[in-house]
Amino acid sequence: MNILIIDAQGGGIGKQLVAAIKQSMPGAVITAVGTNSAATSAMLKAGADHAATGENAVIVGCRKADIIVGPIGIVIADSLLGEVTPAMALAVGQSTAKRILIPVNLCNNIVIGVPELGVGRLIQNAVEEIKKSG
């Protein structure tokens, strides 16, 4: 199973996702793509198998992934303080991969009807969903 994790800013959510998936599913191949080098570095340090940075890396990664995981902003152009380009959001949205989106209510993107959970619990929920998909 090829899992693509996309994150922005400092890569905190991506870092936690990489660590949790590696612990729960050691055989999973994780490619981490950061919208910036800090996010990429954080995910690589957490144990990602492959890592890259930037718009083209997101586009290429989305074509090869079985599952795409990241904060909900990865499907919204100009989100995460502008780090998600329209081309990135389009690539994620058009991918044939299953998308598991973390409902982080930031940057004026509010998901109604989703209980306010801590990031740790959101990560656990995402890993459980990935395991169901594998």
Provide a descriptive summary of the structure in words.
It is built from six helices and five strands. The protein is 45% helix and 19% strand. The protein has a single domain, classed as 3-Layer(aba) Sandwich (Rossmann fold), CATH 3.40.50.1380. The protein has 134 residues and is an alpha/beta fold. The protein starts with a strand and ends with a helix.
Strand order of the largest sheet: 3-2-1-4-5
CATH topology: Rossmann fold
Q: Which percent range fits the helix content?
A: 40-55%
Mean pLDDT: 92
| Uncertain runs | none
State the major sheet. Answer: 5 strands, parallel
Rg value:
13 Å
* CATH architectural group: 3-Layer(aba) Sandwich
Number of strands: 5
CATH superfamily: Methylglyoxal synthase-like domain
Number of domains: 1
* CA(first)-CA(last) distance: 7 Å
Q: Can you count the helices?
A: 6
N to C succession of SSEs:
EHEHEHEHHEH
Outline:
By secondary structure, the chain is an alpha/beta fold. Helix content is 45%, strand content 19%. The chain has a single domain, classed as Rossmann fold.
Which keywords apply here?
globular
